[in-house]
Amino acid sequence: MPEELTAELEIPEAKNPVESLLRMERMPHIWCPGCGIGTTVNCFARALEQSKLDLDNVAIVSGIGCTGRVAGYLHLDSFHTTHGRAIPFATGMKLANPELKLVVYSGDGDLFAIGGNHFIHAARRNVDMTVICVNNLIYGMTGGQVAPTTPVTAKGTTYPYGSYDPPFNLPYLADSSGAVYVARWTTYHVRHVTKAIKEAINTRGFSFVEIISPCPTLYSRRNKLGDGLDQMNYYKENSEIRNGADTKEVGMDFQGKIIVGKFVERERKTYRQLMNEHLTNVFGDQFTPYEG
Amino acid sequence: MKKVRGTVIIKDDSCKGCAFCVEFCPTDALHLSDRYNAKGYRLPELLDPEKCTGCGLCGLYCPDFAIHGYIIKKVA
Amino acid sequence: MNADKKAVLTGAHFIDGDHAACEGAIAAGCKFVAGYPITPSTEVVERIAARFPLVGGIFVQMEDEIASSIAIQGAVWAGKKAMTVTSGPGFSLMMEHIGFAAITETPCVFINVQRGGPSTGLPTLPAQADMMQARWGSHGDYEIIAIVPNSPQECFDLTIRAFNLAEEYRVPVLVMMDECVGHMTEKVEIPEADKIEVVERKFTEKPPGEYRMFDTNGSMVPEMVKAGAGYRIHLTGLTHDDRGYPAMSPVVHNKMLRRLVDKVLLNEEKIRHIEEDQVEGADVVVVSYGITSRVVLPAVNKARKDGIKVGHIRLITVWPFPESYIRELAKKVSAFVVPELNLGQIVYEVERCAAGNAVTQLVSHAGGAVHSPEEIYDEIKGVLGHA
After folding, report:
1. What domain count does chain B have?
2. Does some domain include residue A278?
3. Total domain count for chain A?
4. What is the C-alpha end-to-end distance of chain B, expressed in Å?
5. Are C89 and C40 in contact (CB under 8 A)?
6. pLDDT tens digits, chain C, 387 residues: what are they?
7. Rounded to an integer, what is the distance from CA C42 to the centroid of its chain?
8. CA-to-CA distance for A142 and A144, rounded, in angstroms?
9. Is chain B adjacent to chain C, meaning 3+ CB pairs within 8 angstroms?
10. Å from A134 to nearest chain B CA?
11. Which end of chain A has fewer CB atoms within 10 angstroms, the N or the C?
12. Is B18 near chain A, with CB under 8 Å?
């Protein structure tokens, strides 16, 4: 097996390394058997560990829904906010304390339906934060309703005969809104996800990682796609790694090919940089920069 | 090249039987056992300890933080 | 604590209520404002945007009022004092986050410069029709504090008080201005910074291992921490236990909810702020608040010339409602007259507290202008059959 796989995990301890980042007193978590959210949490924990960040300075913000519960399980300063509003909460927190590393961790319905407006504006402003979207293509917590990511023809309880509501292509949306880092992987690609999260949190500016993840209870069952493992195998067999792909071309069809990879990596000044530079130009010595 | 030996630890109570660990173990060292936990989930186990390299991929996949692997020794 | 000398514009100014409220926020130590333009409150954030680069604050114009009302709470949990400002439809959009601030005990200030509604209503004209919304607008049981200025000077003074109350009780505090007060230009005296009392946040001194987020240690208000201080807190809008962890239990909910409500209601007398005028021995007492109180003055003066024993009380704190005060007063007077720029809101609180001991008469007005003094005078005369 490749050496990179063995090297980093040489932790000869009986304790699962993810546990140091979890609130173990809150386990077991609420997620269903075969749900991929927990898998993404492993990747996130590993990425944080490898990033060597001071974890006391990492704040995690979630909205509402299954993935919205991630904040509550992580042993970090964690904020479980209102439905769709994790990003503006994080915007306020980041602007008020620039020393904090802000990670928004939420689901596709939360971030892109009710929270869609905030996503595009935070990307436009280039607020320095990482947004991790666990995209299970459906509303899980409320019981399997169609999301703005549900592929056309897939069934949800609110489109019982199959959806005809065109979904977002999330990487394209992030790219065109101004995100400086955009990647998509699936929960099958655990090492790529880990690497992408590490890269995203080390990127200054608005970074976005989409992780396609199984929802066996609501998405797979209603659409007769088997269980979580069947979805994982679908990801394995139907994902095509295409780093640098034009995000316009990475939209998803029902059970079709999934284009994964790192699509965007670019530099833009952050909102704070723009603000401080501009106001320094305008006011010179009179400018009193926010001290944080 | 060094040969690596590893093992896994499984928390029976946490497992929800998704079998991600078994399916994606790169050396096919795991299988689903005949044991079930108190909630009725079928538990994985190390089928062939010789095969486990302690790579820890099972732990990275496990959505329930129920299994993790680690290296116990390296033999030349 | 006193206000920051560099930030406070000590001196006499001729400014409107919106601008005065901005200066009040700066004097109170507000360092973060998020807002979205909406008439007639926009001038508050415009002045904030102009002033903050010179006093070390951050203003961000958010994409909507929903974002504004939660961005400020992110800033508060980063350790800062923060507020948002809005009117009319924007206030409706902020309701969910007033509830979030209430359940998470996030100290923050909302300024609502009231205009006519519902919906887009009368964007440029006054009303006092959001008073019940201020109290009840978010779903569920909770308490907030609402204070109502009637002049630009009070927009300055009471915005400072709003920040102080927010810190003291860890509640959202609403400054319920109206279009008239917001756009009225008068003399505003801004005191020396060291004459301005500012309440700073009470951060815990306990080490991370011992600190429990919502443990009140016998008081009603838990101590705060901020993100990045090593406490690894969890904050949620779900019902939560003392650790801040979600707890879907009627027992935990009951305990949490009753404390959220009690910390405000049981301190009502401390929060109470009422201006009294010739209440002693009065037959009729006019109960007013905000801009309407200024129209009451000529009406009361005229009635007094007619020989009617009329008193006037102005509610500066409207929420929590001064129940015991009105209850006691109702035993001494024959009638209350309640003019307000709506079709009846606070009058029903007065009537409830009067409990049949005094007649309660509304002087309603649909908004868009203020009452004429005559309308109020007529009710003062009519309520006891003086007419």
Report:
1. 1
2. no
3. 1
4. 7
5. no
6. 788 888 999 999 999 999 999 999 999 999 999 999 999 999 999 999 999 999 999 999 999 999 999 999 999 999 999 999 999 999 999 999 999 999 999 999 999 999 999 999 999 999 999 999 999 999 999 999 999 999 999 999 999 999 999 999 999 999 999 999 999 999 999 999 999 999 999 999 999 999 999 999 888 999 999 999 999 999 999 999 999 999 999 999 999 999 999 999 999 999 999 999 999 999 999 999 999 999 999 999 999 999 999 999 999 999 999 999 999 999 999 999 999 999 999 999 999 999 999 999 999 999 999 999 999 999 999 998 864
7. 18
8. 6
9. no
10. 13
11. N
12. yes
